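G., before I forget:
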Amino acid sequence: MTTITVLRGDGIGPEIMDATLHVLDAMQLGLQYEFAGAGMVALEKHGELLPQATLDSIARNKIALKSPLTTPVGEGFSSINVELRKRFDLYANVRPAKSFPNTKSRFPAGVDLVTVRENTEGAYIGEGQQVSDDGATATLTQKVTRKGSERIVRYAFDLARNTGRKKVTVVHKANILKSTSGLFLKVAREVAAQYPEIQCNELIVDNCCMQLVMKPEQFDVIVTTNLFGDIISDLCAGLVGGLGLAPGANIGEHAAIFEAVHGSAPDIAGKGIANPCALLLAAGQMLDHLGQPEQAARLRSAIVATLEAKDALTPDLGGEGNTLSFAKAIASRL
Ligand code: NAI
Ligand code: MG
């Protein structure tokens, strides 16, 4: 019996989590859920965005399935997502993008790639943020370390090796950002040399964006630093039909958190029409992580079959279904 921490989240969070748990229950995996609070709900109930009990639960179970959380803007709160990544040193942000049938994507077939984004350093360390007194000059510190670069590049190559992928593209800007991106590229070359069976190529980030839009089928695994990975992974979500279909895993040595890439969608919250697929696909990543790849494949096949049949699709996919009817249609195809 595996116990996972479940964060139901804000906005559409509880709706898509209920739908996801409905499907997981139908799979009879013997999963036990430990519900924990975070976000606006926790702030109202416990006076804290991220209660200690929630951190303890994640530390204990080592696995969390998480709905989007709303971080209040401009009230001195820092992002809960960034905080969770820091707390548990979730250094690998793994975002697969694979073509699905019947989406609004320009690439109905042929895209099957994974972005592996460094999740703890680079431009997002939140240090050295300064604006001069006259408001005319702003600075920020970026930090790239050998350790941070090595473990993320190694993660990408191991992922390629373990999932039968053939190529890793290292994305950088070492021609301009000579120190930070330069170190990342240098370390990436050293690591790549230890995986002779996996093809490695290098692309400068701006060229990479153009190539992704022109010819996405040439990509397999992409590994890059935090800021570039943030942007590229959203671009890749756009290649396969948008945010409603984009999952992500935040993985560290001691814990992993699985979530949708999208946010709490306040514009459609409470209407019961949110697409549950991104969180369901994240649950699939979780099953892979738990060493149950055949169950993960079973879940993905049911999602694809439901999209193929256009059965109960939510409005973002052009259908007339709702969150729960879509989930039930998926569960019926398991
Ligand atoms: P968002 O992703 O919530 O919404 C962007 C657009 O996509 C909206 O039109 C929304 O209706 C639509 N959308 C998103 N998910 C959908 C789904 N499953 N089905 C159908 N349509 C969907 O981004 P936004 O509006 O920038 O952020 C809203 C809140 O979410 C903010 O408070 C932000 O901080 C938070 N957020 C949380 C994240 C997390 O917890 N991982 C990630 C991104 C944002
Ligand atoms: Mg982002």
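Residues 56 and 206 are 41 Å apart (CA to CA). The mean pLDDT is 95.

More on Monday.
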